[in-house]
Automatic annotation (TrEMBL):
<protein>
    <submittedName>
        <fullName>Uncharacterized protein</fullName>
    </submittedName>
</protein>
Length: 169
């Protein structure tokens, strides 16, 4: 009526009976906002809100599965990096052993695990070092003199890269 409603008194009372006070308070609407469109919009908003909340609960298992997958991928990557680093460490250790043996520093070679009865090539297993672009023995035999560090780093980087290519994924 305040906004110019011209309906008769009987229609007003019938409409008032249909709208209980609890409904009006619950939906936080005034009488003039309780048209069927406003009520439908409010109900749709409530359903959408509930759907979003329910969706979060339904997707909890999916989120947990995704988190577990990410953890597994992280552990696999860590294990792969550890494998690669162990392979590099072993290759470097063998290169140093061969260097020490060729230079007659047998005590240092023994510190790294060399046995006098064991050959360096036998420890490398079935690896064919002739396929590498630079022979590991050549790198191991280099003596590091001042001014040659950069050249040695370049060669070691090339050997490391060639070993990475041979490492299984």
């Amino acid at each position: 009526r305040e906004l110019g409603w011209e309906g008769d008194e009987e229609t007003h009372r019938a409409a008032s009976r249909k709208l209980t006070a609890a409904h009006v308070v619950e939906t936080k609407m005034t009488y003039n906002e309780t048209s069927s469109t406003a009520v439908a919009a409010r109900a749709t908003a409530e359903r959408a809100k509930m759907a979003l909340e329910d969706n979060d609960e339904r997707n909890l298992q999916l989120r947990l599965t995704m988190a577990a997958t990410r953890l597994q991928a992280g552990f696999r990557a860590l294990k792969a990096r550890k494998y690669v680093s162990e392979e590099r460490d072993e290759a470097a250790r063998l290169a140093w052993i061969s260097y020490y043996v060729e230079n007659g520093q047998l005590d240092k070679a023994m510190e790294l695990g060399w046995d006098e009865n064991e050959s360096i090539e036998g420890r490398r297993g079935s690896e064919d070092s002739s396929e590498l672009p630079i022979q590991p023995m050549a790198v191991a035999c280099w003596s590091v003199r001042p001014g040659r560090e950069a050249e040695l780093r370049t060669i070691l980087r090339q050997v490391t890269n060639s070993l990475r290519k041979d490492t299984p994924a």
